[in-house]
Structure formats: structure tokens, C-alpha cells
Amino acid sequence: DAADRSRWCGWFKTPTLRNIALTAPYMHNGRFATLREAVAFYATRDTNPERWYPGAKFDDLPESLRGNVDVEARPYHRKPGQRPALNDEEIDDIVAFLRTLTDGYAP
Predict the structure, then answer these.
(1) What is the pLDDT of residues 25-58, one digit of tens each?
(2) Which of 30, 50, 97, 104 could form a disulfide with 25 if both were Cys (CB 3.0 to 4.6 A apart)?
(3) Rounded to 5 degrees, what are φ and ψ at 11?
């Protein structure tokens, strides 16, 4: 019943991380084929937006609703040109950790 509530557009319910390495593609629109791409997106979305958005930042949302996107919480507090929240080694470390959350469960 939230379909007509535009204030929620741009917000997403965070899924469990259990078996996250098995659930590709990632993101609400299936944009990323790998877990590493998804983590890199979060680490660099605000410092290097041109890497992810060929047009305007958050171009997968209607322009009137782009203000709904969280740009204050970490790691989103960074600005274009600043050092990303994570470097490549740290991204790889997070992905390695996320892969340890695979427990073999099959629905």
C-alpha cells in the first residue's frame, strides 16, 4: 500500500546479508552482477558519481524524488573529488567477509 507514497521513493528495505554472495544480481534494479561492484558503488557513489551515473546523479529516480536519497550518513557524507570511503583493498576485504556469510542454505 506504499506505492502511492512518493516520500518513500528512493528508500529501500535492507535485506539480510545471509548468503549474499549467492544472490546476484545486486541492487533494486539488478544493475550489478558482482558483490564487489555493489560494495564499490557504495564506497564511491558520492566521490566519483560519473562512474555510476552517465547523466545526472541518481538518474534512476524521477528528478522530483532525488532528494529522498540519503546523502548524509556514512559513507555518503563525502563529496566529488574527495578520497572514497574505502580503497580497493578495503573493498576486497569487505567482499571477502560477506562471502563468509554463506552457509549452504537452499530454499
Answers:
(1) 998 788 999 999 999 998 998 888 888 888 777 7
(2) 30
(3) -100, 145
